[in-house]
Structure formats: C-alpha cells, structure tokens
Amino acid sequence: MSERFDCRDAFQRTLVELAAGDERIVAVVNDSVGSSKLGGFAEAYPDRLINVGIAEQNMVGVGAGLANGGRIPFVSGAAPFLTGRALEQIKADVAYSNANVKLCGQSPGMAYGELGPTHHSIEDLAWLRAIANLPVIVPADPVETEQAIRWAARTEGPAFIRVSRAPVPVVHEPGYEFRLGVAVRLRDGDDVTLIACGTMVERALEAAERLAARGIGARVLNMPTVRPLDREAIVAAAEATGAIVTVEEHTVHGGLGGAVAEVVATERPVAMRLLGVPGVFAPTGSAEALLRRFRLTAEGIEAAAGGLLRQVAA
Predict the structure, then answer these.
(1) Which helix (H) or strand (E) holds 103?
(2) Residues 234, 206: contact at Cβ < 8 Å?
(3) Is a pLDDT exceeding 70 seen at residue 1?
(4) CA 85, 97, 260: angle at the middle one, nearest 5?
(5) Is residue 3 classed exposed, middle or buried when 0-12, 13-18 and 19+ CB atoms within 10 A define those classes?
(6) Are 167 and 8 in contact (CB under 8 A)?
(7) Helix (H) or strand (E) holding 264
(8) Active-site annotation holds for 288
(9) What is the DSSP pairing of strand 218-222 with strand 102-106?
(10) pTM of the model
C-alpha cells in the first residue's frame, strides 16, 4: 500500500518555511492551532499567530484588516465554520474588497465523521464558487497542497484552499507545479472521463485501474481549482470520450459536478454522472463509512462509469 499523508502537515510545514523568508506572513486562527496543525508555526513565530477564539466572523475580518495593513494573512479554521459562519465577511471583506487574504478550510468534506452533520463541510464549494473574485482550490495530495500554499503566498488577492485531513497518497510527480485554473491529466483514456478533486482523485485513479481490467479506457483529470475551471480540458475530454463522471467529497448540488455540468451543457453536451453526497445531510459515522455509504469509493466510481457507458451505448 502506498504511503499516506495528512495534507495539514504539508500546509504547516510550507507556511513555516515561507514565513521564514517573508515577515509579512501571519496566521489567524479560531482556537484551532491544534486542528490546523499550526503548533510549529506558533513556536517559530509566536508574535505572528493571532488566535481570535471561537469567532469566525471576527477571524475573517481580522484577516482582512491585516491584509489592509500590508500583511499576508493565512486565515485557518475548520472548513464548515470558516465558510458557513463567516460567509458574509468572506464575500464583503475579502472577495469584494479584493483583500490579500488566504482562507484555509481545514478538514473539509466528511473528515470529522463522528462529529456529525454540523461538522461536515459538504456545501463549501457551492457557496464559495458563487462569490466573484474568489479562487476555490482543492488540492489532491501533499505535493499539490504545498504548491497551492506557495502560489497563494506569492499571488496578490484572495483565495480559498481546502486542506484535507484524510490521509491520501501522493498522486503528483515531485516536479509538479500548481497552476490556477489548470487541470492535470493523470491518466489517458478514450472511453470515459473521470474528473475528481481533493480526496477523490486517488479513488478515481483506482477506479480507472479497475475499468482498465474490463477493457475500458478511463481518462482521469484532477481538477484542483473549482473556480476558475479548466474549461478547455473539460471540453476536450467531452469531445474525446463522450462521457464524464465527476467525483467530489461534497454535495452534488453546486460543487465540482455542477460546475463541470455548466461547461458541458453550454459547450459540448455529453452524458454525465455526478457522484457526491446526493442532496442530503450526511449522517454521523466514520469518514470512511460515510464515503462507502455514498459510494465514493473506487468500486462506486467504477460502477457509475460502467452504468453511464451502458446508457450511452443503449
């Protein structure tokens, strides 16, 4: 089995390294030093970590104020609370104001499993991608997480980055460089395209292996930015394979699948399946059990792709 990594470690390690070379970089947290794994940052730069307590709206406002003062704030907190509680501040103080704030949503999707529906962050992509001027980034592994943090630190303007806690393998080569709005083709195939982001990328790759054993060639695209999308890669995949399955640890309403469907419907209509949480509150349970429940597994993706191809052939 491939070695697996918690992307929060890559986030923290990269932030500490960047802060060593740029004193403008600060961290702002909502009583989440531990869950953001920012203990090392706190030790290295105790005067550059601001803990506002459990006050997410205040946290985002403080981040915007620091950005206005010339700092580069990485505002870090559990994804459901950072995005849900502070949505107005994200819209008005950060995106509309074009503040140089980097929003880091920790433990997104259903990573908090046993803590239940209040802690699942399965709507964040939908409500954030509706906000203008806010890049929405979902790294697939620690390599991409590091690259996204480096990109954010050197790029003026706001951004939201999902930082996964669910252990994932490395899916990118060591020399990989994240580019905003650019998909990564991880596997070629001419029969169906699997488009995934975040924790679902490894499962899409596993599904492609299973499909290959059945003589089905699946193209796999990692879509690390949900906004802006790589429209050219989506259209090219639609033209080449004629069938697309999207996979995300998120509701099927308004996230990656909805975004891809908007492109497909307007530019190159083909048959699609959208895999994710099917418009319900995900219940309490282990993260892995919840992913199995909603068939967000290699087997589930394989079955969806097979069913879609049968539909196309009928």
Answers:
(1) strand 102-106
(2) no
(3) no
(4) 70
(5) exposed
(6) no
(7) helix 256-267
(8) no
(9) unpaired
(10) 0.97
Tokens 């190159």 belong to residue? 268
| Residue listed under structure tokens 């052939």 | 313
Residues 237/244, Cβ–Cβ less than 8 Å: yes
Scored b (16 or more CB within 10 A) or e, 133-146 reads ebbbbbbbbbbbbb
Q: Are 222 and 203 in contact (CB under 8 A)?
A: no
**Nearest Cα to 57, choosing from 34, 94, 88, 79?**
88
Asked whether 182 and 230 are in contact (CB, 8 A), the reply is yes
CB-based contact 186:201 (threshold 8 Å): yes
- Identify the residue whose tokens are 């060593």: 20
pLDDT digits (tens, 9 = 90+) for 90-125: 999 999 999 999 999 999 999 999 999 999 999 999
- In whole angstroms, give the CA distance from residue 47 to residue 129: 33
Q: Do 222 and 177 touch, CB atoms closer than 8 A?
A: no
Q: Rounded CA gap, 41 and 188, in Å?
A: 40
Structure tokens at 302: 């394989």
Q: Which residue of the set 23, 56, 123, 156 is catalytic? A: 56
